[in-house]
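Exercise 7. Given the encoded structure of a 120-residue chain, write a plausible sequence.
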């Protein structure tokens, strides 16, 4: 089963932009480019992230997308993390993407993904 999950780019608040502008000012990197350039659209947004939820205790966390990929060893079929709240207890919870859709855009559950992986 092919599925997708929602990756969000959250816009930085004016306070965050001002903080970073004050922090870096006109400093440049080794290539001579501004470290924090307000004219660069990527500067206006935080890093891409995924809303995750625990299947056992309901704990929710926003996880940077690149960390999710790296911790799953570039595994494209299943993206999940141990729940920091209950994975060490008897519940043994797992964080999974909160919004999951199949290849047609229909909402599916994390259990649907697991069932498809088990039926291979």
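Solution.
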């Amino acid at each position: 089963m092919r599925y997708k999950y929602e990756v969000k780019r959250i816009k930085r608040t004016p306070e965050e932009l001002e903080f970073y502008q004050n922090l870096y000012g006109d400093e440049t990197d080794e290539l001579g480019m501004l470290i924090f350039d307000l004219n660069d659209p990527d500067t206006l947004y935080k890093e891409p992230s995924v809303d995750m939820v625990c299947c056992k205790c309901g704990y929710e966390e926003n996880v940077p997308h690149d960390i999710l990929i790296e911790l799953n060893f570039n595994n494209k079929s299943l993206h999940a993390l141990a729940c920091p709240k209950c994975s060490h207890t008897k519940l043994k919870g797992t964080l999974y993407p909160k919004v999951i859709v199949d290849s047609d855009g229909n909402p599916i559950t994390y259990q649907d993904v697991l069932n498809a992986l088990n039926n291979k």
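Remark. The beta strands are 3-5, 49-54, 60-64, 81-82, 94-97, 100-102. Students should compare their own answers with the one above.
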